Amino acid sequence: EKGGHDWFMRKEIFEQPKAVADTLLDRLTLDGALKLDEIRISPDELRRVDKIVIIACGTASYAGLVAKYAIEHWTRIPCEVELASEFRYRDPIVGPSTLVVAISQSGETADTLMAIRHAKEQRARVLAICNTNGSTIPRESDAVIYTHAGPEIGVASTKGFLTQVVACYLLGLYLAQVHQTKFGDEIAAVLAELEALPEKIQHVLDGQQQALDLAQELVDRPSVLFLGRHVGYPIALEGALKLKELAYIHAEGFAAGELKHGPIALIEDGLPVFVVVPPQGRDMLHDKVVSNIQEVRARGARTIVLAEADDPEVEPFADVLIKLPKVSTLLQPMLAIVPLQLFACELATLKGHDVDQPRNLAKSVTVE
Ligand code: F6R
């Protein structure tokens, strides 16, 4: 049942190319437009949306954080991301023109469920992004986009996360289509890139040995840091969460730009620091992250750098370089997270932990 893998989690990591492809299936039309009739909120109503609030917990909230960058960029509609457990205790400003997007793999997370009930009381429209047919959160929502990842059994979310990002991107592109904030050909270009993604994820999986070797090397380290900027920042958070929950070691993700505001004090000789480097491009993003790598390396960090293949600027500063296929900035998270998942899974295996059932955790958290 684990398809030859030692853990469900590893099996699910390897299912990601298919999970992403299945989530795209039947939602793209031949003429490059997006078909999301299943949303059941009319285009007229969607045109009235002037604010998006994403609510979720844990890994799903990091998928939401990635999506915020893309949704705001494509739609120019303000998009907030909030932890479900915080949302309803702070008198949030939502109303009939707010689209609340609840992301939940299980569809049963109590915090998220309570948050959408609160949003509905404020007359917001609620759309669920969910992997479990007929579960409570989609049932109580006005609309739903299902991720078609298939059952996720490992407690740590992997294919759930990737497909949540994909579903949020489809929503963002659909809103851009409805609000006409992007031209059809721009939307088509992103959709084509999404369609090409499963093959690129497979390519990253084929290079798994590097992540496994790294786990061997770092198995006795008490602490690991992760840095990223822009969409790489939530990937740093997610990479750290995977390591905490599976390997039970201290791991933290930071926005690379925040280093000098405090976290750089943590850097000491030999501390492993993973850095997600955005693709090379016209903006300053890439160069800023390269100088962050230099800053931590100069203070003794062992740098493990995830960057696009053929990035000559990072090579001199990477103690270990994990090469990612070429892809645009907004799609890079779906590649960069994969080696971090493999690394956490392997490290936990080497430590003798139960990867599928980490201590103290449950697959769906049905109490607040
Ligand atoms: C971490 C993890 C959790 C869940 C969170 C939300 O690997 O799996 O952080 O992401 O409990 O669960 P769902 O998506 O089912 O609402």
UniProtKB/TrEMBL annotation:
Superkingdom per UniProt: Bacteria
Subcellular location: Cytoplasm
Cellular component GO terms held in the UniProt record: cytosol
Catalytic activity from the UniProt record: D-fructose 6-phosphate + L-glutamine = D-glucosamine 6-phosphate + L-glutamate
UniProt KW keywords: Aminotransferase, Cytoplasm, Glutamine amidotransferase, Repeat, Transferase
Start and end residues of each SIS domain: 42-181, 214-358
Active site, per annotation: K363 (for fru-6p isomerization activity)
Keyword tRNA processing in record: no
UniProt EC number: 2.6.1.16
GO biological process: amino sugar biosynthetic process; carbohydrate metabolic process; fructose 6-phosphate metabolic process; protein N-linked glycosylation; UDP-N-acetylglucosamine metabolic process
GO molecular function: carbohydrate derivative binding; glutamine-fructose-6-phosphate transaminase (isomerizing) activity
Quaternary organization: Homodimer.
Function: Catalyzes the first step in hexosamine metabolism, converting fructose-6P into glucosamine-6P using glutamine as a nitrogen source.
Protein name stated in the entry: Glutamine--fructose-6-phosphate aminotransferase [isomerizing]
Gene: glmS
